[in-house]
Amino acid sequence: INLSPGRNVALKQPTTQTSNYSVSIYHASNAVDGITNWNFCTHTNGESAPMWTLFFKSTVTVASYTIYNRVDSADPSGSLLKRLKGFILTTFDPNHKIVQNYTDTETSALDVYDVLSTEPWTQVSKVQITATYKSPYSILTLCEVEIFGDSVCSRDPLTYGRDCEYNCSCDVHGEKCFVSTGNCPSGCKAGYYGQGCNKICDAGYFGIDCRNQCSICSGQCDGEDGNCTSCATIGKKLPYCKE
Prior knowledge:
The protein is mostly beta strands. Helix content is 0%, strand content 27%.
């Protein structure tokens, strides 16, 4: 069985780095722009321990990390790749306590690094990557950092979405919807359907997930309870026009 590691929760999140290389295009945000090409990397000045930091807008759980090194066709010796050798990846929970502290031990620099989370159920609020390789000083370049996991949304109110920006709308009161989609285990509350339960029932349907078809009404029935405002056939009685 293959379990999904989740989505890339790092994409477009706020980032900083301890310094910026003199050429202004190598911003810290380049590591979370979705582009792995070497033309769109971060780049610090030479320092003793340059650091890149990502701050999650809302806490997440993490399954794995993928770090793209700078692979440059104009660097056949791999001197740019070596900058990432021995890097340290540190993650923190919302209380600033270290969750994971990983140090690269590969004998040679890699194009792409994959790091598994040792605490996949622990909430993470911040990720730091520090360069340690000195030649004669350290420079940190990251072409992309992908972090696979999912948001941890609040229960009061119940929310979902990349940054927990949407409210759940489940049939069962107090039920938590799925963080990525907003869908509910019990179905959408009466009168609504669709991903995120944010679509009002189409004409002629009502109830949980809009699964029920209205009786013979002269107008649209109520999306929640199926009640008709009037009956199309004389002799039928409200609210369902069945008798």
